[in-house]
Write a structure and sequence with these properties.
By secondary structure, this protein is mostly beta strands. It is 0% helix and 57% strand. The strands form two sheets. Strands 2, 4, 5, 6, 9, 10 and 11 form a seven-stranded mixed β-sheet that branches. Strands 1-3-8-7 form a four-stranded antiparallel β-sheet, with no helix packed on it. The chain starts with a strand and ends with a strand.
Length: 120
């Protein structure tokens, strides 16, 4: 069973920082693509950042220069460092993993999400 468990969300003032973590199990983490997405009330879920198994990254234009995605394959964990937070970053943040699962093949998995609220 694949599990993605996010942590690190919370309430922060504009200009502050948060670091989200997503611990994965059940998936072959080292060769999986990983990402963070977010969904604000009344809006569609959108990509925030992704990182490939080789470490290549891409970001939404709205977070470039402020957010950094990274991965620790030894800990099966992906991180999202969020700096210079803005009220418009307020959303539910979800971890995503696309990768192989033993005896099941390739799959696309989501965590339960963590709330990030940025006050002005």
């Amino acid at each position: 069973q694949v599990q993605l468990v996010e942590s690190g969300g919370g309430l922060v003032q504009a200009g502050g920082s948060l670091r989200l973590s997503c611990a994965a199990s059940g998936i072959i983490f080292s060769i999986s693509g990983l990402g963070w997405y977010r969904q604000a009330p009344g809006k569609q879920r959108e990509l925030v950042a992704r990182i490939t198994s080789g470490g290549s990254t891409n970001y939404a234009d709205s977070v470039k220069g402020r957010f950094t995605i990274s991965r620790d394959n030894a800990k099966n964990t992906v991180y999202l460092q969020m700096n210079s937070l803005k009220p418009e970053d307020t959303a539910f943040y979800y971890c995503n993993a696309v990768g192989p699962v033993p005896n099941r093949g390739l799959g696309d998995y989501w965590g339960q999400g963590t709330q990030v609220t940025v006050s002005s």
